[in-house]
Amino acid sequence: MNDTFEQIQQVLQNCDTIAIGGHQSPDGDAVGACFAMAYALKKQGKRVFVLLEEFAPKYDMIVKKELLLPFEEYTGFAPDAFVALDSGEKQRLGAAEAVFEKARQKINIDHHASNTYFAAYNYVDSNASSASEIVYRFLREFVSLDKEIAAALYAGILYDTAGFRHSSTSPFTMTAAAELMTYPIDANKIYTAFFDSRSFSELKILAKAFDKAQLYFDKAVIYTALSLEEISQCHGSSKEVDGVVNFIKGVENVKIACFLYEKAENEIKASFRCTDGFDVCKLAQCFGGGGHVKAAGCTIYGSIKQAWEKIYQQLEKLF
Questions:
Q1: Which DSSP string do the residues of the chain spell out, in sequence order?
Q2: Are residues 157 and 303 in the same domain?
Q3: Cα separation of 144 and 141, whole Å?
Q4: pLDDT above 90 as % of the chain
Q5: How far apart are CA 6 and CA 187, in angstroms?
Q6: What is the domain range of residue 293?
Q7: What does the pLDDT read at residue 1?
Q8: Which residues contact 301 (CB under 8 A, 6 or more apart)?
Q9: How many domains does the chain have?
Q10: Is the pLDDT score of 167 beyond 90?
Q11: CB-based burial of residue 305 (10 Å sphere; 0-12 exposed, 13-18 middle, 19+ buried)?
């Protein structure tokens, strides 16, 4: 059961030092939600620290990196409160989970249907387009928005709706985006950075992934994967792979898209996308992951080949 925004706000008002964290391999929604919350709490006079893994440079336009707590300072850090955003379970916080456990007050705000309500105070709305949309609803009740907050929220909503194209985009989502655009944010620049601009190494990564793509189950499933070595050959990094799964999902007649990449040795990150009539959240949950009905992911330990064999066995039950 959800707590109210008023309850969560009261908890935060009684805290001085507040940590804010999002999921591993942070995307635009995690980054946008975390920094929007951080900017708002700083306006209220709080000592705020953002705990996130390294993220893609395209998100730099909405962040103030001086708010990021260096990884080496996680040990021993015990904030008054920890606000977990865009994380379906506390393990998704990665190294920041240890800080979450030490926090006196624990808050969880999320939009994943698979959320485990892992904090003392929880607000989860799986009908929301993004965590940033929920944070927008929360902040506008308690703080005056400004350019920095609006840009971060707009970016998060834009990213998780794929430019307002996903079915989770509601009339409220569009109303929120419209209000955020009344602030002097560069909406076109944000859109271009997220969807129309990429590094040369990212281009090479996409090309490598496309070249390796294969179709299964009478062309209903598309699959591709990249190893650490292949990503390195493109002079890129794992922060530049998040566009692959959405691109391959667009292949004609494909129902489910599966993209695997080697995040570290024997650590495979799997991303799933699907069309109406399927549920990739259930697929991800088979491996301890989660997400949304149409967009989900998980981590599988072993080789890419071993991970794909396990996923294939689950797909066989569907087809």
A1: -PPPHHHHHHHHHT-SEEEEE--SS--HHHHHHHHHHHHHHHHTT-EEEEE-----GGGGGG--GGGBPPGGG-TT---SEEEEES-SSGGGGGGGHHHHHH-SEEEEEE--TT----SSEEEE-TTSS-HHHHHHHHHHHHS---HHHHHHHHHHHHHHTTTTTSTT--HHHHHHHHHHTTSS--HHHHHIIIII---HHHHHHHHHHHHH-EEETTTTEEEEEE-HHHHHHTT--GGG-TTHHHHHHTSTT--EEEEEEEEETTEEEEEEEE-TT--HHHHHHTTT-EE-SSEEEEEEES-HHHHHHHHHHHHHHH-
A2: no
A3: 8
A4: 90
A5: 30
A6: 200-318
A7: 84
A8: 266, 267, 268
A9: 2
A10: no
A11: exposed
The number of residues in the chain equals 319
Token digits of residue 315: 């797909």
Alpha-carbon torsion 39, 93, 180, 64, what sign? positive
Same domain flag for 204 and 188: no
194's tokens:
């997220």
Residues 287 and 186 in one domain: no
The model's pLDDT over 107-144, given as tens digits with 9 standing for 90+, comes to 999 999 889 999 999 999 999 999 999 999 999 999 99
pTM across the whole model: 0.90
Same domain as 215, residue 151: no
